[in-house]
Each structure stands twice: as C-alpha cells, then as structure tokens.
Amino acid sequence: MSTLTLKGPYWVTVRQHRRVLWTVPALVVAGLAAVVALRSWASDPQDGVLYSNHAYSALRLFMEFSGKGLLFLPLLVGAFVAGPMTARELESGTWRLALTQSSTPKAWLGAKVLVAATVVALGSAALVGVYRLGWVRVAGTYRFHWADTGAYEATGPVLVAYCLLGVALGVLVGQLVRRTIVAMAVTGLLTGLVLLVLGALRWSFLPVVTNTAPLPGKSGWLMPHGALPMGSGYLTASGERLSWDACLNQTQDRNSCLADMNVTAHYADFHPASHHWPTQLIETSIVLALAAAALYAAFRLVRARRG
Prior knowledge:
This protein has two domains: about 10-205 and about 275-305; about 210-275, no CATH class. It contains eleven helices and four strands.
C-alpha cells in the first residue's frame, strides 16, 4: 500500500494500518492462484463420475468453503473499521494528535472512510471475480445453485455492498461505543443481522412466476431448468390452492385426487434464473442506502461531538 502520493490524514491512516491493508491484495492473489491451480488440475468431469474425480471434488470443496467464508467478510470489515480504525483511537485519545496537524475531526473521519471504502470496494470486487472464475466450473451442481447461500452473495455486487455497509457501520458504532472490543462485536453483530434479514427477504423482492398444468398429468415440467422453487401444489375449480400432499393425504396416491376435492390442475411457483441479476441489483441498492444512512449519521455525530 503505497503512501507516496497520500497527504495529511490519508497518509497517516494508510501508514497506521498498512499491514492489514496489504492483506487484501494478498488474499486476492492467493485466492486467484488457488482457483487457477484447481481449475487446471480438475479436468472436465465425465457424466456419472463427478464425485469420483478427485481434482474436481477438491475444486468443489475449495469453492464451498470460499463461498461460506466470503459471507463473513463484511463482518470482518465492519469489526476492523469499528475497532482498530475508529474506537481504539477514541479510546486512547490518539485521535487528538490529528487535530494538531491542521486537520479537523471531519477530515480525520473522512480519511478513515475513504481509505477503508476504497480498499474494501476494490478488494471485494476482485474476490467476487476470483470466486466466479472457479464457480463457473461447478455452477448448477449441488450447493452451487445460483440462489444458494454463499454462491449467491459471492457472485455479484451484493457482496461489495455488504462490505461497504460494514465500513459505514464501523465508523458509526466506533464513535458511539468508543471501546475497541465492544465496538468490534457490536458492528459484527449488526452487519450479520442485516445479512440475515435481507437474506430472508430477498426472494420477495420480485414476484414469483407461476406455471400450471391440467390434471391428469405430471407436474415435473412446470419449472424450467435452474429455477428456484418457491412452492407447488394443486388448484381447485374455484382457484383455491392446496398443498402438494393434499391428494396424498386423502387417497394415498399423490397423482390421484378425490372427485369432491374439485382439483383441476397442478401449479408451481418459482424464480427463474433470469431473476438473479435483478434481485442482486435490488438488494445491492437497499444495502447501499443503509450504508449511506449510517455514514451520514457518523459524520453528523463527529461534527456534533467534536466540532
């Protein structure tokens, strides 16, 4: 992390945290080397022997752990910004040194935000690119569906947005708490909570697509390949929806329904693969709006408390 062209509080911020900042490009390079090596080692698997191909299995294992690991990246970013970058200086009082160097509290906080946000945005975007390089070889297989937790976050801009949210929450909580360890814990908890809540809501951002098929007949073809199933069952003549096991409970045969049930068709609700990018963009916009609100509050706080 070169400091040759940086001045004032920006130079100080990079100088203080240069070792940690250097871990971001190091992580990208290490991940890229691992993915390229595993892709080169893993020849295209033959039908029916996916899991007997040891090289391919190694690639799958690496990608699975990488996807789950990237889920924790926003929490780690938020914890670092809240603790070592912000709360520790307020706790120890060293932030006052910046004010003796013709700097203002707003410039002191702005330097931390800009340095952290720049490194985090570029680094997380690079990690998304590295992950996608390996993911394309295993996409669509078990645990690597485009909507699976881990794969979804690590293959689009939503991961970058969550990391920037970690930066914004970090500088806000760091000022409010002013205790290094506590600020790290609180920021990690808040960032994780946002991840969980939006993860539970994301498939309600867009309306599901519904396909129907008249009875008698099979319902397996109602969803296209790669779709994310959201629900299925039966439709009655009045339009009422029955669960997928309604006929099974009555007749012990899933494909046979009692006449008085008035079942006329199968139905299936799903998100097609084409919903991946619109959902990513909607969720990214929501997360960036939350980050902007937290950042606005952080700058209002530093101005109100420290002038």
